[in-house]
């Protein structure tokens, strides 16, 4: 709890020297601070679909964000990054909750045809990053992970029940079996 209270300061006083808002501003991206921990570009549309997550070590966070911003802008997607380097450390250390560990960048669900193209681009851009694995998500390559998000309470799964028919990434990674997906989700 004390780690969470530390971030109750006004947004403009947190870790000014590594404030990632300047990176977004350079790309001319409009953003909103979320809970003094994240910067969000666009809006989560609340639709079900495949979310993409990018992981990086703390030493790579700033360079990884710089590397992927133009691709995220070009694909016109909504996404979230840490507000500061301190926030990134807290994400990676689990101080914002286990569900956030490794999720340095979150790309909110977009249409399936677009998510495959974007995932391939992000894999190429992040192939040298070495971030932690992301719990309850499926590794695609580079530092890219995916998870099916339904945006109802506690309803994010590595894969939907009909994964064989709806797995969009089969041209570069085979669909995990439903059994392994359930094991990933700690169901069995």
Describe what you observe in this structure.
There is one protein chain. With 188 residues, the protein is of the alpha+beta class. It is 31% helix and 18% strand. It is built from seven helices and eight strands, in the order H-H-E-E-E-H-E-H-E-H-E-E-E-H-H. The chain starts with a helix and ends with a helix.
Quick rundown:
With 188 residues, this protein is α+β, with helices and mostly antiparallel strands. 31% of the residues lie in helices and 18% in strands.
Q: What does the radius of gyration come to?
A: 16 Å
| Average of pLDDT | 82
Fraction of residues in H or I helices: 25-40%
| N-to-C SSE string, H for helix and E for strand | HHEEEHEHEHEEEHH
Structural class, from secondary structure content? alpha+beta
Main traits of this protein?
single chain; 8 strands; 188 residues; 18% strand; disordered N terminus; alpha+beta
How is the topology of this model organized?
Layout: H1 2-5, H2 21-26, E1 31-34, E2 38-41, E3 49-54, H3 61-74, E4 79-82, H4 85-93, E5 105-107, H5 112-125, E6 138-141, E7 144-149, E8 156-157, H6 163-166, H7 178-184
Antiparallel strand pairs: 1-2, 2-4, 3-5, 3-7, 4-5, 6-7, 7-8
Helix pairs in contact: 3-5
